Every structure is written in C-alpha cells, then in structure tokens.
C-alpha cells in the first residue's frame, strides 16, 4: 500500500512539473505558423549590446546583438531599431536549430525575448514599461551615479554566520561569490521595475565613498521606501557584468527585504 502511494505521488508531481513547464513555455510560443523549432531553453539573463544587424519578418524584429564577448541573435516583437544602437533586451526563450520559413533561414541559436527594456535615444513615449533609459543608467553599475554617502547612518550589523556589513561584502566579495548573505542597513535610493526587478542602494555607515565600498546595490521583488531601515537576505555576486559597461564589484541579488 505504501509503495503504491509513493508511486502515485511521484506521478502527480511529474504531471504538475510538466504542466508548469508547458504553461511557461507557452508565453514564448510563436504566433506565426511559419516558424518552427526543434528545441527550447529558457534564458534567464537580460541581453545587453549593440545592434550589428537587423531585419523584420513575420511580425518579429531579428537582431544580431554584439556584446563584449560574443554575437548572438535575438528576436522581439516588431520594433524599430537602428544599426549601432545600444539596447537592453529582456530575457526569453532560446530556440536551438530554429528555422524561419519566412526568412528561409535556420539559426543555430536565437532567443525570443520579451521585448525592449531600454532604447538609447528613444522618445519618452517609446520608453519601456520597465523603466526609461535614464532610470537604467542611474541604476546600473559603473555608468550609473551612486547616491552620496548619507551622514549619520549607523546600522547595527545583522546577526548570524551569514551576516556582514556593506564594507565587509566588498572586502570579502571573492570568497562570498554566489553565497547567501544577510545585511542590515538604510535604503538610500530606490529604482523600481528595471529588468523586472526593483533596485535598492543600501548603506550602513561602514566603508567610504572614496573607496567605493559604502553603498551596495540589492535587486529584489520587494519595494521598500527611501529611509527605511531593513534586513536583506540574498545572494552576493562578485564582479557582476551586465555588458556595455554596466558592472558591479559586488551586488546582492534575489533579495528578500524585511524591516
């Protein structure tokens, strides 16, 4: 009897997993029957680079995206782009050995992105629902302006074996790369809905603006307010590079924010 229950439970879990995967994949299904694919892989990261080549077909804009390290094809809903334009494209589904009958062309790999996140030089009316190019530059990495060190911030260090101050996260970023951390501090800046995340700047009074180790960025689905004193649980990443000059010496991702 116990054995039968275990087998039934496994079958139900497998069916649920297949159902979820099919539902997720359906978000990226192609509306044009001309397009066929032999394999699908979910791509999780945004795609940042310059437009090296572009063409429109079947309601899609195909972009050969040039990054610092590679060239890759990305397709989005038909959108006006120009050669040499710097773009940030949302994650999407990677299609392996994708054949387009309308183009009479097979792509070894192409990512069907959810769409444009930023568009350099775009009019205000053309901005993405995820934020304007200006907001993107304020938020991301070395191209963005960090908020000034706020005076009189003195947050107590979080407790526990994974607890660190802001300065310690920068100092130990190599050994803490891809590790769980806990941080307490004050929210000094919030930028919402960029790359489907909220971007927080946290300071706790440690480090210095001169050394660049007094302010750390946290990405999260939570949305606290500037001035809130919070505890953040997340994963630290060292030398995170989004491309096009947007990089961090240290950044906390998948943040869970509580007061």
Overview of this structure, please?
The protein is mostly beta strands. It has two domains: 35-129, Beta Barrel (OB fold (Dihydrolipoamide Acetyltransferase, E2P)), CATH 2.40.50; 141-258, Nucleic acid-binding proteins (OB fold (Dihydrolipoamide Acetyltransferase, E2P), Beta Barrel). The protein is built from three helices and 14 strands. It has helices spanning 2-26, 133-139, 166-171, and strands spanning 35-36, 39-43, 47-57, 60-66, 71-77, 86-89, 92-100, 105-113, 116-119, 179-194, 197-203, 216-220, 229-243, 246-258. Strands 1, 2, 3, 4, 5, 6, 7, 8 and 9 form a nine-stranded mixed sheet that branches. The model is unreliable at 10-38 and 118-144 (pLDDT under 50).
Distance between the termini: 48 Å
| Mean pLDDT figure | 75
Query: Oligomeric status of the shown chains?
Result: single chain
Low-confidence stretches: 10-38, 118-144
Q: Which outline best applies?
A: elongated
Instruction: Compute the number of strand runs.
Output: 14
Keywords:
15% helix, mainly beta, single chain, 259 residues, OB fold (Dihydrolipoamide Acetyltransferase, E2P), elongated, 2 domains
Topology diagram in text:
Elements: H1 2-26, E1 35-36, E2 39-43, E3 47-57, E4 60-66, E5 71-77, E6 86-89, E7 92-100, E8 105-113, E9 116-119, H2 133-139, H3 166-171, E10 179-194, E11 197-203, E12 216-220, E13 229-243, E14 246-258
Sum this structure up briefly:
With 259 residues, this protein is mainly beta.
């Amino acid at each position: 009897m116990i054995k039968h229950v275990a087998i039934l439970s496994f079958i139900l879990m497998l069916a649920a997993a297949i159902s979820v995967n099919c539902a997720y994949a359906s978000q990226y299904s192609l509306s044009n029957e001309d397009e066929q694919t032999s394999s699908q892989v979910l791509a999780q990261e945004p795609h940042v680079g310059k437009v090296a080549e572009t063409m429109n077909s079947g309601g899609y804009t195909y972009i050969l995206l040039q990054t610092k390290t590679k060239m890759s094809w990305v397709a989005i809903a038909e959108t006006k782009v120009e050669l040499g334009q710097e773009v940030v494209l949302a994650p999407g589904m990677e299609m392996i050995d994708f054949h387009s009958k309308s183009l009479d062309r097979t792509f070894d790999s192409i990512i069907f992105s959810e769409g444009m996140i930023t568009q350099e030089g775009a009019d205000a009316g053309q901005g993405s629902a995820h934020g304007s190019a200006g907001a993107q530059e304020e938020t991301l990495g070395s191209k963005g302006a960090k908020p000034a060190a706020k005076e009189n911030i003195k947050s107590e260090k979080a407790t526990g074996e994974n607890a660190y101050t802001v300065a310690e996260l920068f100092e130990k970023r190599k050994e803490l790369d891809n590790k769980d951390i806990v941080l307490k501090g004050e929210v000094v800046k919030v930028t919402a809905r960029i790359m489907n995340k909220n971007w927080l700047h946290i300071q706790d009074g440690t480090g210095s603006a001169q050394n660049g180790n007094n302010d750390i960025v946290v990405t999260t689905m939570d949305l606290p307010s500037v001035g809130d004193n919070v505890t953040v649980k997340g994963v630290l990443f060292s030398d995170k590079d989004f491309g096009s000059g947007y990089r961090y010496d240290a950044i906390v991702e998948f943040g869970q924010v509580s007061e």
